[in-house]
């Protein structure tokens, strides 16, 4: 028997060693997930396992699993453990860039990640843990939904639904990543989030998959045609961003969370930056063309103004006449709105309106000041626009903006016309407005207004086109922003090159207001 050299006593086995051995055995079953065959199928599908995903998402060695022993155990006739088939849900907490985050990840190697194979209490516990401890929540969703086989297992049906799947939207950031076919509850968990991502070629999101759709609607569709990346990041807008790979998706998650506070009781955190507050970009003085018919690149303006490398776009492929971004100015996180004149002239479409509502709600929930680079020609017109209730959606966008309580700064850089031209800030507060010399505005563009007001005059003129142009040039003299500034209807007209310096000064004032802004909003985010 081995002797302890320091005391002369025998080295004894720990009293609880048999139980510790069983603990380690049970952990080994959990780490095997669905077994070698299931792991191989996952990899052959071009997908990581849920545990590999967690390792890639979190800071090294920071993940601490909760409920690792959860599963279906098998025992011999003497009650000795034979094996454990683990739950299809892995939950826990860890660090993302040093910030404590809760995660819930489906294990597709176990019964295809079926939500019925997971313990519902486990998923709900993860959500409530994030809520009670005020930590951000990441959902790594890879689940096919419920299984008809559960009816035989339980010898009964159940009323649909789990309490707690959407309880955190007004308190902590929720991020969802679709990492496979997500149906039913899995799809709902993707949608009920502040930011969502799909990975091309491996992710689909739908209320029900092709096998359920076929007998119900007599449609024969593939998973990709029914709910692939093209459908939901471009056409429906139900998912915010696409990712080219799982690693790309995890990087987007990390970037999104870097702009937000861990919960609504804290302000967003400033990061150190080497970008000078007084950086002055000469290109801004010429970036808006004199010819009003020519577009320009809005994203280039944002790159020149905000901290270098700090822009993160959300929902680029949907509602594309409206740009929504997160960024930083002198290290402070902000939400950014801008119109894109390259897409439908930057007009307010029904999809752009929906995009604004969701983005402004998210910024307001988490106290991100908003900067709006405004060039709005008006609500989109035509039969297609009318059939999509575009005006109603635009009014809803205006209501979302008017309800926002965060600091707000608007730069009028070109047009502001009609109903949509009035939707640029919460109008009931002393928000800050600036205009570039290129800005012009009104109830209706002069060209269209002249056509309407002087129709008979123009048609009866010897040269109708010359008469029209004469009237347009006459009215344009009133359209300069300097005339508006004379009446204090526009407070500040600035050299575009001063925009960054002005914003760096404003953002200090904005964040000085944070102590009175933090906390729960009376109106939570609209999904």
Task: Please describe what this structure looks like.
The structure is a single chain. 36% of the residues lie in helices and 18% in strands. With 527 residues, it is α/β, with parallel strands linked by helices. The protein folds into 2 domains: 17-259, 2-enoyl-CoA Hydratase, Chain A, domain 1, CATH 3.90.226.10; 282-439 and 493-517, 2-enoyl-CoA Hydratase, Chain A, domain 1, CATH 3.90.226. The longest helix is centred in the last third of the chain and has 16 residues, at 350-365.
What's the layout of helices and strands?
Elements: H1 17-31, H2 35-44, H3 50-57, E1 64-66, E2 71-75, E3 81-86, E4 89-96, E5 99-106, H4 120-133, E6 137-141, H5 149-154, E7 174-178, E8 181-183, H6 185-191, E9 195-199, E10 204-206, H7 210-217, H8 223-227, H9 229-235, E11 241-243, H10 246-259, H11 298-305, E12 312-313, E13 322-329, E14 332-339, H12 350-365, E15 370-376, H13 383-387, H14 390-403, E16 408-417, H15 418-421, E17 432-435, E18 440-442, H16 446-453, H17 455-460, H18 464-476, H19 481-486, H20 499-512, H21 514-517
Parallel strand pairs: 5-6, 6-7, 7-9, 8-10, 9-11, 14-15, 15-16, 16-17, 16-18
Antiparallel strand pairs: 1-4, 2-3, 4-5, 12-13, 13-14
């Amino acid at each position: 028997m081995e002797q302890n050299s320091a005391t002369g006593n025998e080295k004894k086995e720990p009293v609880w060693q048999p139980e510790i051995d069983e603990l380690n055995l049970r952990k080994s079953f959990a780490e095997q997930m669905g077994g070698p065959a299931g792991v191989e199928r996952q990899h052959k599908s071009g997908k990581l396992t849920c545990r590999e995903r967690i390792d890639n998402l979190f800071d090294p060695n920071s993940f601490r699993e909760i409920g690792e022993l959860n599963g279906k155990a098998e025992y011999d006739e003497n009650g000795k453990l034979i094996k454990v088939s683990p739950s299809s849900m892995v939950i826990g907490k860890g660090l993302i860039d040093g910030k404590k985050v809760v995660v819930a990840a489906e294990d597709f190697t176990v019964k295809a990640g079926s939500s019925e194979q997971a313990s519902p209490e486990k998923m709900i516990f993860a959500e409530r843990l994030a809520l009670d401890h005020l930590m951000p929540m990441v959902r790594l969703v890879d689940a096919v939904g419920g299984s008809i086989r559960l009816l035989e297992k339980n010898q009964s049906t159940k009323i649909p639904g789990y309490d707690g799947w959407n309880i955190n939207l007004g308190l902590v950031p929720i991020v969802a990543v679709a990492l496979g076919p997500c149906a039913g509850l899995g799809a709902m968990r993707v949608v009920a989030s502040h930011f969502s991502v799909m990975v091309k070629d491996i992710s689909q999101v739908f209320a029900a998959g092709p096998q359920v759709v076929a007998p119900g609607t007599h449609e024969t569709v593939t998973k990709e045609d029914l709910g692939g990346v093209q459908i939901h990041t471009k056409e429906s807008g139900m998912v915010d961003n696409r990712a080219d790979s799982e690693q790309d998706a995890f990087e987007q998650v990390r970037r999104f969370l870097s702009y937000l506070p861990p919960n609504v009781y804290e302000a967003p955190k400033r990061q150190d930056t080497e970008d000078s507050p007084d950086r002055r970009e000469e290109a801004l003085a010429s970036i808006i063309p004199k010819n009003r018919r020519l577009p320009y690149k809005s994203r280039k303006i944002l790159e020149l103004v905000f901290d270098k490398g700090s822009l993160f776009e959300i929902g680029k492929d949907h509602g594309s006449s409206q740009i929504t971004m997160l960024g930083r100015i002198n290290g402070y996180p902000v939400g950014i709105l801008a119109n894109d004149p390259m897409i439908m002239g930057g007009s307010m479409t029904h999809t752009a309106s929906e995009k604004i509502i969701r983005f402004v709600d998210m910024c307001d929930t988490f106290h991100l000041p908003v900067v709006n680079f405004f060039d709005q020609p008006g609500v989109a017109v035509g039969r297609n626009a009318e059939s999509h209730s575009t005006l109603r959606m635009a009014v809803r966008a205006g209501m979302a903006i008017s309800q926002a309580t965060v600091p707000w700064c608007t730069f009028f850089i070109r047009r502001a016309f009609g109903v949509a031209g009035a939707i640029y800030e919460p109008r009931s507060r002393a928000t800050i407005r600036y205009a570039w010399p290129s800005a012009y505005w009104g109830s209706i563009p002069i060209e269209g207004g002249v056509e309407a007001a002087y129709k008979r005059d123009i048609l009866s003129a010897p040269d109708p086109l010359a008469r029209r142009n004469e009237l347009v040039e006459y009215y344009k003299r009133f359209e300069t922003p300097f005339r508006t500034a004379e009446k204090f209807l526009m407070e500040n007209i600035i050299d575009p090159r001063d925009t960054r310096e002005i914003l760096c000064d404003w953002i200090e004032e904005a964040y000085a207001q944070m102590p009175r802004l933090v906390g729960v909003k009376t109106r939570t985010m609209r999904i």
